[in-house]
């Protein structure tokens, strides 16, 4: 549930037209001129050079030196020259730094990569225009002591690099924004809060969870009591709560890896608090579910079950089928591991009842599959087939072919196990009657009679007739057992 990097985006503008346009071409000569004799020209140039220059400037129109250079140079060179002419030396250096970093990324990615196959930064005039515009505006604002404008223009440059391969350039510019935001004292900390959020995302992406938590906590503190919103209408404070909720869960996971259950529990309690502060019930349910797992790993099964029941209530109120399945599955595992199978089945019946009442077909499927799995594992294949069939019927109401095939497979497994019981009993009997049953079944692939030792058989033994009704577990002959 990560927050996108563009959550604080600023509207991007392009370079003004007079900068974008290349110098216009001119007709070299307006009319054909007759060249004077060579000797006369030499004498004239020697004697009156200034006069000739004045005459040529007034009467012969062509390209100036600047116009000629502009047409000879690359687009990047023209932009750099223009920066230097206007005195933007820092912008010139920064543009070269970005180009060098882009080239380094390309070399690191190597041939065949997306960045290698694409155009270089120097060959993208639109992007160069934007960089020219924002770099020079940022430098001008810096000279005037307007740090807010510097930050805004630096942030706009970030959005020039929106390809995944250019991630390192974005991170470099985000760091510059963060350094600038520290100097701003006139906006109540809004831009500094944005910068902390960006740095938190960068560190989280790089796996530096503790550093990310520090930035998110600073983001949370700066946004507390504010009404600032992003372009999607979410308040900065709710975003800070979401970031902290997510990072606390990641921290708790790392603590569990290091066998630090107590610290993990404290961290997850903080995650629950962040979810409640942000007013997000789904986040609260997820954090509560994670806390129950930590108590389970710590061996506190009773407390884990109590917390799982809390998560069930939250997920039920949200009609969250995925959350309900995970919660009930965890309850089932804990109870079965304690040998409380009947209690586990009771909880799953409650799950199915809740799902039926809420018209959650997906949850009905989940409840039936979990119940069927318990019966199947304990050898109650008739019961398992009954629940798997109910799961298949519930899946039929959903437009989900994958789920339908999954439940059909469960039915096939239960029926195969049921068939194997009878098949094995015939094998173990080792008598002619059982052999006839097996041969007849092998020929017709119908369900075998339940007990060959008590049934009267004719000399021409034939298998029981298959039911004309089809069921979800029936499959083509070539896929049946014994083929």
From TrEMBL:
GO-annotated cellular components: cytoplasm; sperm flagellum
Ranges occupied by TPR repeats: 365-398
Chain segments carrying region Disordered: 450-483
Compartments, record wording: Cytoplasm
Compositional bias ranges of the Low complexity kind: 463-483
GO biological process: cilium movement
Major location (coarse): cytoplasm
TM stretches of this protein: none
UniProt entry keywords in alphabetical sequence: Cytoplasm, Repeat, TPR repeat
InterPro entries cross-referenced by the UniProt entry: Bac_ResReg_Asp_Phosphatase (IPR051476), TPR-like_helical_dom_sf (IPR011990), TPR_rpt (IPR019734)
UniProt cross-references to PANTHER family, sorted A to Z: TETRATRICOPEPTIDE REPEAT PROTEIN 29
Task performed by this protein: Axonemal protein which is implicated in axonemal and/or peri-axonemal structure assembly and regulates flagellum assembly and beating and therefore sperm motility.
Protein name: Tetratricopeptide repeat protein 29
Organism whose genome encodes this protein: Coturnix japonica (Japanese quail)
């Amino acid at each position: 549930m990560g927050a996108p990097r563009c959550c604080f985006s600023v509207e991007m503008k392009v370079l003004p037209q007079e900068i974008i346009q290349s110098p216009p071409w001119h007709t070299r000569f307006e009319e054909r001129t007759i060249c004077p004799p060579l000797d006369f020209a030499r004498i004239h140039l020697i004697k009156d050079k200034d006069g000739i220059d004045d005459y040529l400037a007034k009467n012969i129109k062509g390209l100036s030196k600047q116009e000629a250079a502009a047409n000879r140079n690359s687009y990047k060179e023209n932009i750099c020259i223009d920066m230097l002419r206007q005195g933007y030396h820092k912008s010139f250096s920064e543009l070269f730094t970005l180009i060098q970093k882009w080239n380094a990324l390309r070399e690191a990615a190597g041939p065949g990569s997306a960045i290698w196959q694409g155009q270089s930064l120097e060959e993208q005039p639109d992007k160069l225009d934007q960089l020219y515009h924002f770099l020079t505006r940022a430098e001008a604002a810096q000279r005037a002591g307007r740090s807010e404008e510097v930050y805004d223009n630096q942030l706009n440059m970030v959005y020039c690099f929106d390809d995944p391969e250019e991630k390192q350039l974005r991170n470099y510019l985000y760091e510059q924004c963060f350094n600038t935001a520290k100097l701003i004292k006139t906006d109540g900390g809004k831009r500094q809060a944005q910068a902390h959020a960006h740095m938190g995302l960068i560190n989280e992406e790089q796996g530096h969870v503790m550093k990310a938590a520090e930035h998110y906590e600073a983001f949370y503190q700066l946004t507390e009591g504010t009404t600032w919103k992003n372009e999607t209408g979410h308040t900065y404070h709710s975003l800070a709560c979401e970031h902290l909720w997510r990072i606390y869960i990641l921290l708790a996971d790392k603590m569990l890896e290091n066998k630090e259950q107590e610290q993990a529990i404290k961290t997850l309690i903080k995650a629950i608090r962040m979810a409640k502060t942000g007013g997000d019930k789904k986040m609260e349910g997820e954090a509560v579910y994670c806390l129950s797992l930590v108590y389970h790993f710590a061996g506190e099964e009773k407390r884990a079950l109590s917390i799982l029941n809390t998560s069930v209530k939250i997920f039920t109120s949200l009609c969250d089928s995925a959350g309900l399945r995970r919660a009930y599955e965890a309850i089932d595992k804990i109870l079965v591991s304690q040998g409380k199978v009947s209690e586990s089945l009771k909880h799953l019946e409650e799950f199915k009842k809740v799902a039926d009442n809420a018209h959650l077909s997906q949850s009905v499927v989940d409840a039936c599959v979990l119940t069927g799995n318990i019966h199947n594992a304990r050898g109650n294949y008739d019961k398992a087939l009954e629940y798997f069939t109910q799961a298949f019927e519930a899946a039929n109401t959903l437009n989900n072919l994958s789920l339908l095939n999954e439940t059909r497979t469960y039915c096939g497994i239960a029926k195969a196990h049921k068939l194997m019981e009878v098949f094995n009993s015939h094998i173990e009997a080792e008598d002619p009657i059982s052999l006839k049953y097996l041969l007849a079944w092998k020929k017709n692939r119908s369900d075998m009679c339940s007990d060959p030792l008590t049934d009267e058989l004719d000399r021409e033994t034939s298998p029981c007739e298959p039911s004309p009704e089809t069921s979800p577990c029936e499959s083509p002959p070539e896929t049946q057992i014994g083929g």
